[in-house]
Structure formats: structure tokens, C-alpha cells
Amino acid sequence: MAYTNFTVETDADGIGLVTWDMPGRSMNVFTVGVMDELNAIIDETVADKAIKGVVITSGKSSFSGGADLSMIKSMFSFYQDEKAKDPATAAQKLFDLVGRMTGLFRKLETCGKPWVSAINGTCMGGAFEMSLACHGRVVSNAKGVKIALPEVKVGIFPGAGGTQRVSRLTDAQSALQMMTTGQSLSAARAKAMNLVHQVVEPDQLIPAAKQMIKEGLKPVAPWDERGFKAPGGGIWTPAAAQLWPAAPAILRRETSGNYPAALAILKCVYEGLQVPFDTGLKIEQRYFTQVLQTTEAYSMIRSLFVSMQELGKGARRPAGHPKTELKKVGVVGAGFMGASIAYVTAAAGIFVTLIDRDIEAATKGKTVSEGLVKDSIGKGRFTNDEGAALLSRITPSIDYADLSDADLVIEAVFEDRDVKKAVIEAVEAVLPAGAVFASNTSTLPITGLATNSKRPADFIGIHFFSPVEKMMLTEVILGKETGDRALAVALDYVAAIKKTPIVVNDTRGFFVNRCVLRYMSEAYDMLSEGVPAAMIENAAKMAGMPVGPLALNDEVAIDLSLKILKAAVADLGDKAVDGRHMQLITRLVEGEGRFGRKNSKGFYDYPPKPAKKLLWPGLKDLYPQKKADEIDVNVLKQRFLVTIALEAARTMEDGIVTDPREADVGSILGFGFAPYTGGALSYVDGMGVKAFVGLCETLAEAYGQHFNPTALLRDMAAKGETFYGRFDPYGVKTAA
């Protein structure tokens, strides 16, 4: 029988080789069609008496990325449609739907013939759950191999048998750690956890898998044999008595109870290990059905899975412009930011000319890349030859003429209009026709900088975040005269360096910094109200932020905050800045010499390592302190999330951000806005705009007019709209 996504061959030893190779895709993924074909292949191989066993592998460089986003999206739309038709039966129908993959893998596992998964490259999510249902697992030791069940990162969990099989193959603590964090495992680590049987050289992958069958691999899973016991003895053991009472507390410490899927993993493992395997699968299916009905799962999958992929694949790229294959990029400014931009560019295989005022400064900039390469080699990410090749693509220079054949030039010099003006003029004097000039400015409007350009249509902003090699977001900023071709080139570059872009129109602070400043400003308000600094930091983290606003301000630099406040006053007048904020930051910088982490003194003190940072005791002396039991922590949490969401809404109202996907993805990747919400606008939509407006009004009455809902929000509340409905990124009106 012929298949679209698989080929099936049988060798002289009677071993079937099933090769998964989806046409027109760079990676295999599970779709309804793939599951239909796999089901048919199981039937075919079972019926063929000549086949003694089956090896399943991939025809691509990676095994599989798991489920296709369209299939994930269809589960939510299916439930919403069924709920509208018959609320009483909608959950049962969803339960039956999500059990299909579970049933397929269980069918494979109990088919009576041995199956071996031969894993080459990335094996994620449902693909690894399928592999766990196979009776043998052989993995290549190639550097690119990554094995993971990362579903919790997008709001769901391994719901096709993953929680039951992993916890029956390895100890419960390791199983919980793997699934509640979504961590990737190397081949060696997966073997150490007993999740795979063999790790072999890439060219031995298929032979080793076939050999397992030749040696009499039993077509029975361990848990289907009489007398099976889970590693460590299961739930009712002394070791388990230490693990399970602590596990929920540890999870709450790490997540503040914000992630329903993470808690569901604990429940699935704890309950599942006390019952027969098939009952455990039903327990998992029940919890997966419940999680799929949560706002958190819907919002996280939409933003962190669907929208991120759409934006990464060029959802905002203007049509009609051929893809630019960048051969050479110039970076002007070899400070830490410029040097890091040079590194990620060279890592993408693009040649870089790194320019600074003198060759010593330019060469020093390259040493940043040398340090990053050395670190990557030490961690096994690069070979010595790969590291040397990367460094060979970076050429320090002081001669702007070396940019005469560049496709794109990025300036990353000091945040000073005159300095940037000089660089723009020097670069444009040699830049070839059709090349694009980009500024990495974080504060200066692009339109203003473009007045120094003779070719404003080719002038754009590409705003990176530090550390560049780790931060996945890039803001692409359009000036008033920026042309579509410049935008296309910028997005092609961002795709080449494997970052996620958001496209924003020009304004002070763009999108991310506008929201970040609101976050830090709310902390200034709380300090001035006498809220203890520790409560401020802890409440922010309980709200879902990865780092407290005071710690974040230290990383940004408090003296930079003072410069921003002074610039706002100079440009917009005294009323542009809250006097309490100016007084606080001026006191810290000019009165106390506290600039942030960079001089080891900020809102925190930074003693020599290995000692950890601690809040500066002097903070409590700046304002009269309230008693902790007089403060509602839930209100503190609301204030942080609402003030950021309000600013995101303002950027939509101002036309700075035009696509709600970009506001959501930008808020999460840019500064870690509570990922469980799905992003700043999904937070509003998830709550309901009417309820959000009511919360804003309550907070405005108690804590200041900056919480007043905007005219846009009031209009949306009156009309019962959502951001994804009113600003539909797909061009078709959709429900929330």
C-alpha cells in the first residue's frame, strides 16, 4: 500500500522499515493524515506474516517536532463549536477527540509485533510519546539530537501517554522534572534516565534498531508484564513519602499556581502510578481534556506556539519582494551590543565587518565573539572547526569603505543623536544602492534619525535585546518613510539569525520599552507608598513575571533610568514624569551613587561571588513602611499586570502595534510578561474587556489616574469586543 507521508520497506530478514518523510515540509509533524496512515501501517504490518518487527525512523535530518499547529488549533475550535451547539456534551466529545492519539499509540504498543524507534535529530512532544510506545528506542549520538516533552511551555502537557510511560521508565522525581520544565535531553541523558535503550553512531542507527528485533525484542511493554513495578517502587515507599508531599510545594514555589498544565502533570503521575496502565491513560486523558478548556492553555498555545511560528515565518513580511540572501552585514559600533550582533550574524553564516573608531576597539569587539565561541565549544554546541569558521566570518575594521558591498548595515553606537548622525552620513557615503541601513537605537525615534539619511525609504530600526545571543525577540521599527523593501530585508535578516520579529511603528520607547517602563514605574509608586521592597519583588514574581521590577531596573541600569526621565522632561515638559519617580531615582543615582548591577549597588547590593544579591537595606529608610499584613498581595499582582496591559492597549490605540499577535509575543519574549496569560493583550481578552475596564476603574480610584481605561477599551467593552476580534490578524472576524 502506498502512503503520502511514509514509505514501508521489508528486508530479507523480515524487518519492516517505516520511514516518515512528509512532502513539502522541513520537519515531520503529526497531523490527522499522519495518524490515519500510521494506523493503517500498524494494521498492514500486523497482517503481513512475513514481517517479524518494524523500525520507524525519519527521512529528514530531524525525527519530528510533534503535533502540527493546525491540529492543536483545531482542538480548541472543535470544543468551542461543540460548546455552542450542546454545552452538556462538549466536554465528552473533546475527551473522545484528545484520546485518539493515546489510542493509536496504545494500539502500536499492543499490536503483538516489536517496534523500534530509530531517533535521528530532534524528537519532541507527540513524536517522543510515540517512541515511548515502541518496544525499543535507539538514538543517534549526533550533536543535534534533542529529546523532550516540552508541551508545558505552551500551556498543555504530554497527553498521549507521556506522563504514564515516562514515570514508569524512570524515577518519579526525574519524570516530574522533565515534564514540568519541558527540558530537552541529550541522547546520553535520555539513556541514563532509561528512556532509550541504545545510543549509537549516526550510521549505525538503523542497523542497531534492526539488530534489537533480530535478537528477539519482546513486543510487550514493561508495564504490561506481570509483576511490573515502577522505578523506585511507586507511590507507597519511603522515598515517595519524601517526594510527594514536597512536590506540590516546590511546583507552587516555581509557578505560583499560574500553570494548570504543570499541576496536571503531578496529578497524572501521582494518580496514574497507583492504578493499572490503561486506567492511568484514562486519568491522563481526563486531565488533558480539563486543561484544554482553560484560558491559560488557549492563550499560551495561541501566542507561544501558533503566533510565534507565524511571525517567525514572515507573517508581517510585505508581499512582492523576493527573499534577500544576505551575504555581508556591517555592524558599526563594537561595544558589547554591537559585538553581540556581529556574533549572532556570523553564527547564521553571514560575513560581518565590525567597525569602530580605532582598530583596538574593533578588535576588542571581536573578543566578545571569541568568548561566546569558547563557551559554546565547552558546552558541546560547537566543534573547534565550527567555532573557528564562525570567527573567521567577523572582520574588525576602521574603514567605512569596507561596507561598500554590504547588503545591510546596523549601527549600534552610543545613544546620542549627533554620534548617530555622523555614522549615518559616513555609512551612506559608501553604502551600495539597494542596501538597507538599520539603527539599533532603543530610545531615539527612527523617523528623527532618518532625517539624517539621504535614502529614508531604506532606513529602518532593528532593536535587539541584551544579551543578544539569548534573547529571541527583535523589534523592527518603521519610520514614516521606511519602504516595504527595507522591511522585507530586515525581516529576512531577523529570520536568518533565528529571532522572532515584531513590527512596530515609530514612537518613543517603541513597544517593549514603553511596557517595561510602566512595570518599573509601578514599583516606584509602590515604594513611595511604603510597600516593602521584598513584597514588591515577590508579588511581581507571583504574578508571573520572571524577575521583579527592582531587579530588572538594576539590570537596565538606574542611571539610564534617570537619563530617560530627564530626556522625557526635556522633550515633553515636567508633567511627563511623576515627581516622586524623579525624586527617587535622582536620590539613588546622585545621592547614593547606586547605578545598578554595573557598579554592584542599586536597588540590590551585589557582594562578591558566591554570595547572592540582596535588597539594599537602605530602601526601607526612604519612605515610611507599611506593615505587610495591611497590604493585599493580590492587588499588587493586579497592578503590575494591568499597568503593562494598559500600555499595550495604548500602543494599539496609537497605531504603534497593529497586530495583537505582536503585542502578545513581544510582551512575553521582550520582558517575560506572565507567559501563562498568553501576553499582554491576551490577558485582557482572557479576562474579558468589560471586566478589565472595571478593574482598571477600581485601581484608578485607589492608585492613580494612570490606571484609567482608554477610549478604545471603553468602546470595546461596550461592544463586547476582543483585541483578536477587533484587530483580527487573519482578516476574518474570529472569536476571542
TrEMBL record:
UniProt cross-references to Pfam families, sorted A to Z: 3HCDH (PF00725), 3HCDH_N (PF02737), ECH_1 (PF00378)
Pathway recorded for this protein: Lipid metabolism; fatty acid beta-oxidation
InterPro entries listed in its UniProt record: 3-OHacyl-CoA_DH_NAD-bd, 3HC_DH_C, 6-PGluconate_DH-like_C_sf, ClpP/crotonase-like_dom_sf, Enoyl-CoA_hydra/iso, FA_oxidation_alpha_subunit, NAD(P)-bd_dom_sf
The keyword Nuclease is assigned to this record: no
Residue ranges occupied by any 3-hydroxyacyl-CoA dehydrogenase NAD binding domain in the UniProt entry: 328-507
Keywords for this protein: Fatty acid metabolism, Lipid degradation, Lipid metabolism, Lyase, Multifunctional enzyme, NAD, Oxidoreductase
Source organism, top-level taxon: Bacteria
Residue span, 3-hydroxyacyl-CoA dehydrogenase C-terminal domain: 509-606
This protein's record includes keyword Lipid metabolism: yes
Reactions the enzyme catalyzes: a (3S)-3-hydroxyacyl-CoA + NAD(+) = a 3-oxoacyl-CoA + NADH + H(+)
Similarity field: In the central section; belongs to the 3-hydroxyacyl-CoA dehydrogenase family.
Name this protein carries in UniProt: 3-hydroxyacyl-CoA dehydrogenase NAD-binding domain-containing protein
